[in-house]
Amino acid sequence: MSGRPENLGLQTRVLHEADSLNDTYAVTAPIWQSTTFSAATPEQLAELGASVHPTVFYTRYGNPTHKQVETVIAALEGGEAALVASSGMGAIFAAVMTGLQSGDHVVAQTNHYSATAKLFRDLLPRWGISSTLVDQANTEAFSAAIQPQTKLIYIESPSNPLLRLTDIQAVAELGRSKQIRTMIDNTFATPVNQLPLSLGIDVVVHSATKFLGGHHDLTAGVVVGSGSYIAEVWDFSIISGSILGPFDSWLLLRGLKTLGLRVEQQNRNALALAQFLERHPKVETVNYPGLESHPQHLLARRQMKGFGGVMSVVLKGDQSAAARLINSLKLAKCAVSLGGVDTLIVPAVTMWGHQHSAEQRRAAGISDGLVRISVGIEDEKDLIADFDQALEGV
Ligand SMILES: *Cc1c(COP(=O)(O)O)cnc(C)c1O
User: Which of 127, 307, 357, 383 could bond to 290 as cystine, CB 3.0-4.6 Å?
Assistant: First the structure.
């Protein structure tokens, strides 16, 4: 079958975008579980070794299964090219470091995924790269933080774990006007809910461990951007070496096939649960961009199609209330990570305890009673019933 119809929807694309890269009869593309690839002649092999991002040379340089999943994710985000990595942090590290050198400056947020926050705060200064961290809700703060040596504006929206938003289009325009690269962590929203490249952002990064993979069974990351930038990131990452294994790459491809279905269900479940929790007398606050009470709800409606599967809550009373809730839940599991098919719940300090002092946690707004919930694809009524019964014992 040749000649693909135009303007395909997201669910059709995740299934068919890489069809032309599968030249076998297998409906599900086989895994290229090989480290190295043979060439017909030494000259051909040398040519492959000298090319950018070859797929049949050596798997650290690329692999046909990588190529398939990169093609699908680039299409979903509307980018020219993508590069997979062995974790979200592998992707973020390569994407951030590629454009930076000693003496450069980065503008980022006070609220980021905990390891990303540590990268800007503690690691980059070791290489002489400084950062200014700003309140993401204050768009003017981004432009006020720019210095002559600023080379990157890095944002995360919604951010982990407080679900605060950044005005993506405003930051993209700022970057364009000053010729500074803009990069966003789009893990929480996914391309189902938010398309930052279409709002003018230059580079998207993901922890593909989360919604993209979606089944709590792999660790992966991805960078999406222009062909020339991805070639530069590739050049860096064949040295930094955060390379996804072919099997995990194949699992990611498989997980992606249901991305649209899963995230739509997670959007519905999370909104219903957030509304239920917000009305509950034992709940103090619910942070979820889909609620009208979210201080940036209008911005959420402007830049997101759905509000995602993650929220965070604070219960009334002391922090032991959170522990009692978690202990009483029968379906939701107490675990880190997010975005997968099972509902997970975790005290936010669990992710922040190791890398950040109590003072640094407070500065980032992470209170001891804050609990993050990643809503899965269970039936909505069962999920709400589970939280209902668990809150009774709180
Ligand atoms: C989990 C996560 C990361 C890190 O991804 P890993 O796959 O664990 O390396 C980065 N950003 C966000 C928003 C995340 O949730």
Answer: 307
